[in-house]
Amino acid sequence: MPKQLHVFVENKPGRLESVTEVLYKNGINILAFTIQDRGEFGMVKLLADKPDQGYLVLADKGFACAVKEVMMVAIKDKPGNLHKLTSVLLQHKVNIIDAHGFVIEPGKKGVCCLELAETKGVKQLLEKEGFGLVDEERLAELLL
């Protein structure tokens, strides 16, 4: 299952740069990211080609970080497709803890990254409903 890096950083200039520098110097490619403001601190969530290695090098440099399993769902970039995805999850009482998405090719394809309370059986459910799942390697191929 794909993994996402969560890095807790002080909310001040230069902290994102220090995270990206550590990953860059260790040959880790950032595929997508989001930043959430939490007052004095923030959380940087990253999809990377080598999330476990990213965790190790960031932790070694003193960053408070974690790795979380996520599901990356490929969806067509058309009106209503995100609604279809969320409706399927609701019908099966799947709780979405966190999510972010992005378009890879306008009008054609996008990816929705989901952190779920429970993942058991969700992969099969989504595939049955016509959604494709993407891993880090496939995401890198789609983006590059």
Put the structure in a nutshell.
The protein has helices at 15-25, 51-60, 81-91, 122-128, 136-143, and strands at 3-10, 30-38, 41-48, 64-69, 71-76, 96-105, 109-116, 132-134. With 144 residues, the chain is an alpha+beta fold.
Provide structural commentary.
With 144 residues, the protein is α+β, with helices and mostly antiparallel strands. The chain folds into two domains: 3-69, 2-Layer Sandwich (VC0802-like); 71-143, Alpha-Beta Plaits (2-Layer Sandwich), CATH 3.30.70.260. The protein has helices spanning 15-25, 51-60, 81-91, 122-128, 136-143, and strands at residues 3-10, 30-38, 41-48, 64-69, 71-76, 96-105, 109-116, 132-134. The strands form two sheets. Strands 2-3-1-4 form a four-stranded antiparallel β-sheet. Strands 6-7-5-8 form a four-stranded antiparallel β-sheet. The model has no long low-confidence stretch (mean pLDDT 92).
CATH topology-level name of the largest domain? Alpha-Beta Plaits
Provide the domain count.
Answer: 2
Low-confidence stretches: none
Q: Beta-strand percentage?
A: 35-45%
Gyration radius, rounded: 16 Å
The major β-sheet equals:
4 strands, antiparallel
Strand order of the largest sheet: 2-3-1-4
CATH superfamily of the largest domain: ACT domain
